[in-house]
Design brief:
CATH class of one domain: Alpha Beta
Strand content: 5-15%
Number of strands: 3
Strand order of the largest sheet: 1-2-3
Oligomer: single chain
Helix content: 25-40%
Distance between the termini: 76 Å
Structural class: alpha+beta
Largest sheet: 3 strands, antiparallel
Low-confidence stretches: none
CATH architecture of one domain: 2-Layer Sandwich
Radius of gyration: 27 Å
């Protein structure tokens, strides 16, 4: 189930982008800072808890997710990119991975493994120096 976050729950701020770009980079605020307060959002408590416990350095101590989008030259494209990345993070945290159950190798697989080890050992034995008689 995809979760869409309303526009009222995140704050977009235009800032100047870093890096190369000539005169344009010094005059135009094309990069976007997106701030999303996880604790004050309308997400359910389970998902808030999952987001807050992510090992992600974009989430600060106050529980605010800060994304910086400056990949594109236009402000509008960077806005779309920041919002898309926010939705990706939230939807990824919403996915629960199935529990992995340990399985044992089959009898045939064990047999094949041991045969290949024996064969490899024989190949290595044949590489040794031949003893003079």
């Amino acid at each position: 189930m995809l979760i869409l976050i309303p526009e009222t729950e995140y704050e977009l701020t235009a800032i100047r982008a870093q890096g190369a770009g000539g005169q344009n980079v010094n005059k135009v605020s094309s990069a976007i800072h997106l701030r999303f307060d996880i604790k004050a959002s309308s997400l359910n408590d389970w998902l808030k808890d999952r987001l807050l416990h992510l090992k992600d350095n974009r989430i600060n101590d106050e529980g605010v997710l800060v994304l910086k989008a400056q990949q594109y030259r236009t402000q509008e494209a960077n806005k779309k990119d920041a919002i898309k990345r926010l939705h990706e993070i939230v939807n990824a945290a919403n996915q629960v991975k199935p529990t992995r159950y340990a399985t044992r190798p089959t009898w045939g697989a064990q047999k094949r493994r041991l045969e290949s080890k024996t064969q490899r050992g024989q190949v290595k034995q044949l590489r040794g120096k031949i003893a003079p008689e």
